[in-house]
Amino acid sequence: MRTAVITIVAGRHDHLVRQRAALDGPERHVVVAMGKSEGEQCRHVLGDTSDVIAIENQPEGLPLARARNTGARHALDADAELLVFLDVDCIPGPTLLERYEAAGGGAPALLCGPVAYLPPAPADGYPPAGLHSLATPHPARPVPPDGEVRRGDEHALFWTLSFAVTATNWQRVGGFCEDYVGYGGEDTDFGQIAKRLGVDLWWVGGAWAYHQHHPSESPPVRHLADILRNAPCSTDVGDGGR
């Protein structure tokens, strides 16, 4: 199966380099940089190991939905059969791609692997092996045993940190709604459209991603303006512009 890993980037270049180092197979790594200068920085740190595409930012906020759609189009133009989306914070586990590829031949589904959270990196960085023993799984999402695919209909749990979708199912759902700009909403919209179209949500055991530590806040107060601006898009989920 021809697989492409798609990552959207606005900073956190150390995280990006660690992610790229963990991808050592034949898969295509598509990096969509949000901003021209961001594209230059990504090319500098990655060299020619990844396909770096730069898109313009929007004054309202980061164009997260458009960036993911841009990465998907690039991968599909290169004949990718499976699209694996990883946030820049995520280091893929050694079996992530293998498990996603094995699950990708089933019925129409979005594929989500478990995500575990790492503590702050030591001075010399995270070790190249043994991340699983350092990380804590997200407490609110399923963690099937390695090799098991848990078929369910919990589309409200869909998230973009780590997920995979076949080219056919991506085209069926239609990508992310680009009416959403900045933080919040486009992932919920995508999951609900998939549900409406009969595309299930499956949790893929063993497709681990390890989320690198960075400061965060809960609730996300600094994103309040984005959330309020995107709220009208969510009042009629599934009918946004694509």
List the SSEs and their pairings:
Layout: E1 3-9, H1 13-22, E2 28-34, H2 36-46, E3 51-55, H3 64-77, E4 82-86, E5 90-92, H4 96-103, E6 109-112, E7 115-117, H5 131-134, E8 136-137, E9 149-152, E10 162-166, H6 167-173, H7 186-196, E11 200-204, E12 209-211, H8 224-230
Parallel strand pairs: 1-2, 1-4, 2-3, 6-11, 7-12
Antiparallel strand pairs: 4-10, 5-12, 6-10, 7-8, 9-11
Helix pairs in contact: 1-2
What does this structure look like?
By secondary structure, the chain is α/β, with parallel strands linked by helices. It is 30% helix and 22% strand. The strands form two sheets. The chain has an eight-stranded mixed β-sheet with strand order 3-2-1-4-10-6-11-9, with helices on both faces. β2, α2 (36-46) and β3 form a beta-alpha-beta unit. The radius of gyration is 17 Å and the shape is globular. The two termini are 27 Å apart.
How would you spell out the order of helices and strands? EHEHEHEEHEEHEEEHHEEH
| Helical/strand content category | alpha/beta
CA-based shape: globular
**Which CATH first-tier class would you pick?**
Alpha Beta
The percent of residues in helical segments reads: 25-40%
Distance between the termini: 27 Å
Q: What does the radius of gyration come to? A: 17 Å
Quaternary structure annotation: single chain
Poorly predicted sequence stretches spanning 5 or more consecutive residues? 221-225, 234-242
Number of helices: 8
The total number of structural domains is: 1
Mean pLDDT metric: 88
